[in-house]
């Protein structure tokens, strides 16, 4: 297999974890009306229990986030991916056979552990094996597989709905098939060369780099070794909150916050419920959810095409603007309802605005957040830093999905989506003012550029140029 093809193949295998993540996270959307009835989750108290049933995956993901960094540093990136595959398999089978609410919660928490580990480890692993000029695209494959998994869960739920009251069991059970495939394919991919080198396994690291980069492997190994030698002397957890990484941590935490606080997972997890409130029947709501899934996949493909061409920041700005407009439009559409409990006056606008919101997210905060988080931290602290940011991201996600049924009940859809829209405007201001550009740089170049002081307070080189100083033309005089 040629080196570029091998890089793509490895990224696709690792990104199967993303597929399972997306499927496992959103399969609950179709099961919500069914488990509400099966477990008796009606009334005000039932709304909170339903919110817990949906959000408990996020709480489990928080533990997975915290554990993934330390485990991937100790055991290796690939070993953690193996663990996530086993957890996805166990969660699927346990949820499908659950007969008590407690058992169902345990199954979803196990799935959350897998989600928390996969959402961090897969992009980390891919970024450490990808060449600099294709890193954004290859890491974005993971986000593509997440949205394909989301879309697959919507279509699967729609097809299985006709199987009767127990259809929710099949919705969860089908996940066992891709979980087994993920386990099998992980046997065929190598460990991260950066992790191998950090553990003193230089020969193995060189072999992996040779398979990926051919004759350029030696120079790449020397570049990585020079940085590993420096980062080996730095602290670990304490270093994350020191002056050297202060600005990078602030930006990453802010980006992770806005990715979830704007309500993307609330929309995905409760999508059929939202469409039903907009005036459609349950079957129609499932079909509309499947359509939204297709939009999500299509726009993620567009993001993959442009992330290494336009850059990270332009996509973030464009996406945040689109999210703001679409969320405020959803709020207006619900506010124009004829009266309490009546269908909205513009149900077609709700569908169009949700599709626009998902499209805007899929081209920006969805893939770009994880690409940037996987590349802006130094090699020595990258895994632990991603764990902290992932924990924060999962905390926001779990909180948003937990309180969503309560918000809908007390504020109504109009008030809920107005809040999301205002937060999306805040996200737009954040990325305009603070987002750096990392396009076209190696991980080691990004580390040297961003560590020590704020990269936003100084002039950055043109990211379209080759950042290898040995290959750069003489710099032009400042005008």
Task: Please tell me about this protein's structure.
- By secondary structure, the chain is an all-alpha fold.
- The protein has one domain (3-198, 239-454): Growth Hormone, Chain: A (Up-down Bundle).
- It is 76% helix and 0% strand.
- It is built from 21 helices and no strands.
- It has helices at 3-26, 28-38, 43-75, 77-96, 101-129, 135-160, 167-173, 176-185, 193-198, 202-213, 217-231, 237-240, 246-261, 264-269, 271-277, 282-306, 312-335, 347-362, 365-375, 382-434, 443-450.
- Helix 13 (246-261) runs antiparallel to helix 19.
- Mean pLDDT is 82; it is low at 455-479.
Write a brief structural summary.
With 479 residues, this protein is mainly alpha-helical. Helix content is 76%, strand content 0%. It has one domain (3-198, 239-454): MFS general substrate transporter like domains (Growth Hormone, Chain: A, Up-down Bundle), CATH 1.20.1250.20.
């Amino acid at each position: 297999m040629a080196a570029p093809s091998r890089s793509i193949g490895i990224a696709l295998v690792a990104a199967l974890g993303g597929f399972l993540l997306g499927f496992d996270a959103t399969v609950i959307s179709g099961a919500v009306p069914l488990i509400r009835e099966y477990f008796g989750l009606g009334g005000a108290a039932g709304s909170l229990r339903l919110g817990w049933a949906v959000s408990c995956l996020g709480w489990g993901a928080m533990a997975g986030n915290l554990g993934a960094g330390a485990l991937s540093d100790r055991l290796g990136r690939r070993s953690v991916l193996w663990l996530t595959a086993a957890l996805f398999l166990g969660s699927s089978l346990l949820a499908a056979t659950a007969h008590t609410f407690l058992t169902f919660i345990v199954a979803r928490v196990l799935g959350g552990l897998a989600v928390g580990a996969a959402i961090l480890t897969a992009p980390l692993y891919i970024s450490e094996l990808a060449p600099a000029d294709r890193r954004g695209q290859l890491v974005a494959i993971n986000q593509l597989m997440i949205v394909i998994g989301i879309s697959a869960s919507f279509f699967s739920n729609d097809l299985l709905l006709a199987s009767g009251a127990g259809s929710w069991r099949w919705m969860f059970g089908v996940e066992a098939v891709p979980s087994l495939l993920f386990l099998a394919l992980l046997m065929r991919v190598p460990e991260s060369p950066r992790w191998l080198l950090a553990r003193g396994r230089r020969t193995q690291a060189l072999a992996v780099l040779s398979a990926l980069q051919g004759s350029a492997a030696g120079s790449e190994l020397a570049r990585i070794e020079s940085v590993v030698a420096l980062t080996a002397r730095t602290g670990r957890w304490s270093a994350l909150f020191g002056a050297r990484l202060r600005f990078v941590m602030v930006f990453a935490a802010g980006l992770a916050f806005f990715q979830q606080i704007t309500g993307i997972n609330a929309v995905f997890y409760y999508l059929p419920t939202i469409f039903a409130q907009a005036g459609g029947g349950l079957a129609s709501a499932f079909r509309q959810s499947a359509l939204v899934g297709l939009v999500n996949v299509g726009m993620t493909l567009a993001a993959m095409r442009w992330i290494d061409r336009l850059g990270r920041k332009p996509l973030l700005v464009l996406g945040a603007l689109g999210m703001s407009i679409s969320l405020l439009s959803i709020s207006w559409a619900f506010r124009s309802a004829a009266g309490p409990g009546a269908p909205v006056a513009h149900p077609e606008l709700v569908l169009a605005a949700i599709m626009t919101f998902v499209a805007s997210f899929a081209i920006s905060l969805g893939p770009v957040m994880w690409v940037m988080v996987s590349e802006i931290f130094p090699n020595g602290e990258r895994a632990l830093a991603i764990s902290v940011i992932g924990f924060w991201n999962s905390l926001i996600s779990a909180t948003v999905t937990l309180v969503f049924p309560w918000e809908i009940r007390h504020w109504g859809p109009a008030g809920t989506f107005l809040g999301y829209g205002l937060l999306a405007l805040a996200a737009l201001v954040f990325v305009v003012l603070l987002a750096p550009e990392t396009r076209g740089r190696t991980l080691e170049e990004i580390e040297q550029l961003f560590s020590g002081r704020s990269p936003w307070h100084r002039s950055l080189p043109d990211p379209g140029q080759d950042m290898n100083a040995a290959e750069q033309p003489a710099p032009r005089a400042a005008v």
